[in-house]
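Cross-posting from the modeling subforum.

Setting up a comparison between two proteins and wanted a second pair of eyes on the formatting. Protein 1 (sequence, then structure tokens):
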Amino acid sequence: MVSQAASSFLAAVKEPGALIRIKAPKQMGKTSLLKRIMAEANKSSYSTVYLNFSLIEKNKFTNAHNFLRSFYAYVINQLPSAPSLTVWDTDIPSMVNCTLTFQSLLKQLDGVLFLALDEVDKLFEYPEIYENFFPMLRNWNENANESDTWEKLRLLVAHSTEDYGRLDINQSPFNVGLPIKLEEFTEEQVKSLAIRHGLDSKNILPLMSLVGGHPYLVRLALYYLVCQDATIGKLLQEATTDTGIYSEHLRRHLETFQENQELGRVFIAVCSSVRYKNFAEMI
């Protein structure tokens, strides 16, 4: 299912100056789709760079200058032929510097550069950085309209949030390019996955009544049923307990509610179902 999507999205990547945006909540398959698109791009002999912002150390976010230097350093680490950091001019503004350096990179590059930026939500913790970085990406994308050099850059941005902080949405990459919004699996898709796992698709309806078509939760359940040789009845009975397969998933949300008391109160107001009573009382 995802591989077919990756192949179709590659047609968009082949457009000069393409920008693709993948938006979905956590654990919906953004990174999986992103990497499959990258694999297709590699088949087309594109130079590819992948950067997950959640893996960048906190000390790199102290200011925009340090962040942009680190950003470029990470890129050239995956592109040995790129201009080194010795060309970085510390006497000019950081965004201009980064843009000029990337322009030099693209001029030297033989072919297309596919730059995939994952978990960019991390930047919204640092206003000084995101208020400069995202408009810079928008500028790079717009440069492709009038520059053969910038046409060689293809961007893919993956994010979860729709809260862009103080960012002017019209000066960002979040309202241009091709948007991809990942949805939950349909019943037919979940049945197909169950059959691929060698499971009876009749077991799927009780599972979907608990987790819907959430990609991560569905795949975790199928993996558990196969590898633990467990029954769907046992899975459902233990699912929301501390020993169930979803304990880590639920604990992560619990921590979110505990950190945001207002969100927790709204959640409790919504949870009128007996199924969620114990979880709501923990907040």
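Protein 2 (same layout):
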Amino acid sequence: MTTPAVPAVIPVHAAVPRPAAAPARSGRLYTLDGLRLLAALIVVAFHFVAFDDWATPVWGKSTSVIFPTAHPIASYGWLGVQLFFLISGFVICMSCWGRTVKEFAISRVIRLYPAYWFAVLLTAAVMLWSHGMKQTGITPGKILSNLTMLQEPMGVGDIDPVYWTLWTELRFYLLFGIVAALGLTYRRVVTFCGIWLLMSVLAPHSGIDLIKLMAMPDAAPFFVAGVVMFLMRRFGTKPELWLLLGMSWLLAQNQLHALLKTAEGSVKHQLSWTVCLAVITVFYLLVLAVALGRLRFFNRKWLTTAGALTFPLYLLHEELGWEIIRRLHTDIAPWPLLGGILAVMLLASWLVHRFVERPSAKAMKKWLTGAGAVGARR
């Protein structure tokens, strides 16, 4: 029985054969690439149309005034991050299956760091050129610390605020890498999901910072849901998987209360918990539909390009986009300016993918796997 292919943007080795009872769902999951770009665009809308900094508004005045109709809708765009976490849980489990820990680690390094390094250096350069070191607080040490992607646990601020999600992703990779080191099996991954959900509830009451740090109560339900959905695709819709998925959704809705308060501080008005839950539920259903093969009509090869644009777009858009708005909002009407910025960011994202990510990933993979050294010794 064949194993399902995976998106071209995340190459993997052949996966472990399924049990005979497992449903065969072949085909590349291009639809996930489309959902990833959708998540990024939702976050972009939040930052450009809904985010309100009353002290130094990038548009010169509140976004609620600039975009009176779109602002209330875009105010829920922060939930795009939760869609990212859902997809990440699915994709990381899929890409890790059948690989060694070393292969998994190398795949993550070459996938994340080239574009990230470029974004850090470009954003820092633009912000320093525009506002100087004193106003931005960007020092050589801060730039170097950001290049590690570990600036948050080091106590150093992000060059761009969007980088906060990368530390969350890295902790997920570490946890899942431990499971992979033991050997990925259906039973072990299901056990891991159950234990993680339980720890996400208990950790805040443990009084131990390290446990709270690694349990990630606000993100764990979404990562676990993605992992469970991949297990459903690979092994079928078993009762224990439905129970885990339902539990993750119940914990996610509880976490929305705290996440909502943080978001309200960014948009400067009250948000609806009911709307947030509805959006999260739609995200769950979309990824689940992909896992169960219900969105085959949208599984188009061209969506690979959408997936390729997603990570650079996410890394580049916030500070650089805000800087463009600061400089041009008095000369160009809001909606044409937004359209122009999005077009520029998408083009820049494609250029980063084509001329930074692809060649760097190829060179780094060759170096990290020792392929060149083996050839040289012969």
